[in-house]
Write a structure and sequence with these properties.
By secondary structure, the protein is mainly α. The chain is 43% helix and 9% strand. It has a two-stranded antiparallel sheet. The protein has a two-stranded parallel sheet with strand order 3-4. The longest helix has 36 residues, at 22-57. The chain is globular, with a radius of gyration of 17 Å.
Length: 221
């Protein structure tokens, strides 16, 4: 892995790195399909329990849908269990400073829009499991950069846009190094580092580290 001091070197020839690993990316897609199907089948009872809990806790649908930016800048709909009150999007204030985009943090520990059940779902990362359907339909992968909202991507400098060269993931290198608590600049660093050093072995390591982070509830809120 590149060091943080050599961060600028990561922004060079990433597309060439991707092209040299086409076979591994194809195998990765096969794993995504198989594992997402298995995960959906195994977790069906959990889906039902969470749906009931959300409906009992607050008004609104159990499933939350949001537009995100995926591979090659394509807009897609991401699925999550709803963790906030209805119409929470209208109450959102991103407070983005385009000149200081690298220090932007998407999530906040103090968010009054989060429901009681939603707080548990976030800390346990159970709100993310509907994204297995995104993996199955090919808009996401199990491992990759987290998909960003269009409102943030529009401020990306050119070097940041390289994170859009691969499918976004449910988990990734940034998530196992801080999840929701790190700045966008560091997130981009980890994402580009992942793309540059991608391998199936690295994916397996990230998946196991994700399980550990979820159990310990590190950086989730």
């Amino acid at each position: 892995m590149e060091s943080m001091e050599n961060c600028n070197n990561i922004f060079i020839d990433i597309e060439k790195d991707i092209n040299s690993k086409k076979i591994q990316f194809r195998i990765k897609r096969i794993f995504d399909i198989v594992l997402s199907i298995i995960g959906i089948i195994i977790l069906l009872p959990i889906f039902l329990i969470i749906t009931i809990a959300i409906k009992l806790d607050s008004k609104g649908p159990a499933l939350f849908k949001q537009k995100r930016v995926g591979k090659d800048g394509r807009i897609f709909t991401i699925y999550k269990f709803r963790t906030m009150v209805i119409n929470a999007e209208a109450k959102r204030d991103l407070n983005i400073d385009p000149k200081n985009i690298e220090n932007f943090i998407f999530q906040s520990k103090e968010d009054s829009r989060v429901t009681k059940v939603g707080s548990f779902l976030r800390s346990s990362s159970l709100d993310e499991i509907p994204q297995l359907f995104n993996v199955l339909n090919g808009t996401m992968s199990l491992v990759g950069p987290r998909p960003e909202i269009p409102e943030v991507v529009k401020y990306y400098p050119e070097k940041y846009k390289q994170r859009l060269l691969v499918l976004p993931g449910i988990t990734g290198l940034a998530q196992v190094n801080g999840r929701g608590e790190i700045e966008l600049g560091k997130t981009i660093y980890y994402d580009l580092n992942y793309i540059k050093n991608f391998s199936l072995i690295l994916d397996l390591k990230i998946i196991f580290k994700t399980i550990f982070s979820v159990v310990k509830r590190r950086g989730a809120f």
